[in-house]
Amino acid sequence: MKFTLPKLPYDYDALEPHIDTKTMEIHHTKHHQAYIDKLNAAIDGTDLADSSIEDLLTGLVEVPDDIRMAVRNHGGGYYNHMLLWTMMTPNGSELSDGELKKAIDRDFGSLDKLQEEFNNEAGSQFGSGWGWLVADEAGKLKIMKTSNQDNPIMEDSSLKLILGVDVWEHAYYLKYQNRRPDYLTAWWNVVNWEQVEKNYK
Ligand code: MN3
Questions:
Q1: How far apart are the CA of 87 and the centre of ligand 1, in A?
Q2: How many CB atoms lie within 10 A of CB 163?
Q3: Cα distance between residue 22 and residue 150, in whole Å
Q4: Are 18 and 68 in contact (CB under 8 A)?
Q5: Short-list 51, 83, 94, CA closest to 188
Q6: Residues 147 and 128 sit within 8 Å (Cβ to Cβ)
Q7: Rounded to the nearest whole angstrom, what is the distance from the C-alpha of residue 32 to the centroid of ligand 1?
Q8: Run of H or E residues at 155
Q9: Measured in angstroms, how far is the CA atom of residue 102 from the centroid of ligand 1?
C-alpha cells in the first residue's frame, strides 16, 4: 500500500508524564494506522494513487466526488498525525532566540501570550479537531482551529504549518478525561521547538 505508518522518533513512554504511554501507543498504532488504511483504500486503483499527500489535500476540489470525503478525512488524519509526532519531543525543548521568537514577539507580544491565545483557540474547538499555528507568505503568524481532520492547507495552500495540536478526545481522554485545558497546558512541556523553528524557516 502506498502510505505507511511512520515510525515514532521516540518511545511510547517518552512523553510521560504529560502524554501517557497507553494514549501514545493507541494513538499511533490504531488511530493513525486506521487513517492510513482508509486513505489507501480510497485512492487505490484511481488516478490519484501516485499523488503526494500535500497534492491530495490542497487539491481536494479535483478529487472525484465519491472519494473526496474519504481523502479529506483520512488523508487529513494521515498528514496531521505525521506532523504531530515530529512536533513533540521527550522533555520538550526551549524556544531559542531566533527568527521564530522575533515573529512571536511581533505578532503576539510574547510566548506566554501566544500560548494563552493558542490554548483558548484549541480549547474552544467544538468537538473534534486541531489547533494550529500557521504562517502566511509574509511570515506573519496566525492561530487557527480546524474541525475533524481538516488541515489549514486545505483552505489555503500558501499557509505554512508551524505547530499543531490534536484536540480529539482520543489524544487525551485516558489521562485527562474531560479536562482539555489541562492537556493543552501539559502539552507545551513536550513541544519540539527545534522542529517548530525549522517549520518556520
Ligand atoms: Mn489523533
A1: 13
A2: 23
A3: 25
A4: no
A5: 94
A6: yes
A7: 7
A8: helix 152-155
A9: 30
Q: How far is the CA of 128 from the centre of ligand 1 (A)?
A: 9
Tens digit of pLDDT at every position of the chain (201 positions): 699 999 999 999 999 999 999 999 999 999 999 999 999 999 999 999 999 999 999 999 999 999 999 999 999 999 999 999 999 999 888 999 999 999 999 999 999 999 999 999 999 999 999 999 999 999 999 999 999 999 999 999 999 999 999 999 999 999 999 999 999 999 999 999 999 999 999
CA 109 to ligand 1 centroid distance, Å: 30
Termini Cα distance of the chain: 32
Question: Can you tell me which residue has the cell 488524519?
Answer: 77
CA of 175 to the centre of ligand 1 (A): 15
